Amino acid sequence: MTQAELKLCSLLLREHFGDIVETIGTFLIRSGPQPLRLIAADTGLLLDQVRKALCVLIQHQLVRYQLQKRGLVEYEARCWRVLRILRYPRYIYTAKSLYGDTGELLVEELLLNGHMSMSVLVAKVADRLTETMEDGKTMDYSEVANTFVRLADTHFVQRCPHVPQDLDPPPVPPPPAPTLVLNEKDMYVVPKLSLVGKGKRRRSCEEEDGEHQAKKKKLDGDSTEPPPDDGIYWQVNIDRFHQHFRDQAIVSAIANRMDQTSSEIVRTMLRMSEVTTSSNAPYTQPLSSNEIFRSLPAGYNIGKQVLDQYLTLLADDPLEFVGKARDSGGGMFTVNLHKALASLATATLESIVEERFGSRCARIFRLLLRKKHLEQKQVEDFAMIPAKEAKDMLYRMLSENLVALQAGCQ
């Protein structure tokens, strides 16, 4: 990790969690995995302060723990996860654009709290939505729960790992740290809850002081029963949001290169595969033209023959965003995710070079990307640029580490 990234992680931890958490997090990023007492000794903080700070970091998935063979529990910072805090506003905005205000608040609460149970989350979001509604109107728990189910069905939220409940008596002495497990089949399964109720508005301080304090003991006594989904916690699936951003970039690139109809076809293919294809898969699941035709948006009126022509054009395009897997069922097509991302990254690099050094440098850079290795004389000939200018441009890009020299064989 570079010093700039370390400084950024430190600033993010301080802004969101305070000085103590920032001290613990920065120490773990610098030193690597460490046991509890060594963290307390090296940071100069009290043991109780270190425990509470680690609890906060673990709850937000910013630190993980691991039981070593010697019996010690070591805590390790997840630097990449700290840096993802910068993208929280984008995750929230994406949830709003896909699922409205309810989806926005559900994702926001999960990001603010790290993880929450569904029943607590639904009640909190319903209260927040009720606060923004006109007098006399309230938000039903069932409406919020339906949006949560949609988020889980599309994998934008997922269950957290949990401690397995064994029927056998616990060992004596108990292990220093619990082992968390998660069944992949249950990651997006929403428990069947009968959430009945409506959001509540906050009362003024004067009203609360009298009535709320009087009923506090009674309410505390009634709330001893655990919620129906006790022990089932949910978190935001960051990888799924990044997958959505990737899909949007591919669709936008197709629209710029071809037309809106082509981009809508690719969007449909990506939407059909968004749950069945992992975020790091090289390509989507093969889809037949008949399946794609049936899944096109209702208001998109193109015939089957026109769709086949578009799919053929996409498959024959040199960038190979869409590939043809086989010819059965009218043709089986996939979206080549890795090739699409490589093309997008290449186009971004070329635009940066052109903006900083001009179109001629971009021509040389594009030539080197295509040919991999070229001598200076070959660069001059292929790019059709005078020797002096080509040499100057190569030196400028070399000084910025955009191109590299490689010794030739004697």
UniProtKB/TrEMBL annotation:
Its main location: nucleus. Residues 7-65 form the RNA polymerase III subunit RPC82-related helix-turn-helix domain. Keywords: DNA-directed RNA polymerase, Nucleus, Transcription. Residues 146-344 form the RNA polymerase III Rpc82 C -terminal domain. Residues 349-406 form the DNA-directed RNA polymerase III subunit RPC3 winged-helix domain. Residues 199-231 are annotated as: Disordered. The keyword Lipid metabolism does not apply. It is found in: Nucleus. One of its GO terms (biological process) is DNA-templated transcription. GO terms for molecular function: single-stranded DNA binding. It comes from the Eukaryota. Pfam families: HTH_9 (PF08221), RNA_pol_Rpc82 (PF05645), WHD_POLR3C (PF22536). One of its GO terms (cellular component) is RNA polymerase III complex. Component of the RNA polymerase III (Pol III) complex consisting of 17 subunits. DNA-dependent RNA polymerase catalyzes the transcription of DNA into RNA using the four ribonucleoside triphosphates as substrates. Specific core component of RNA polymerase III which synthesizes small RNAs, such as 5S rRNA and tRNAs. Belongs to the eukaryotic RPC3/POLR3C RNA polymerase subunit family. This is DNA-directed RNA polymerase III subunit RPC3.
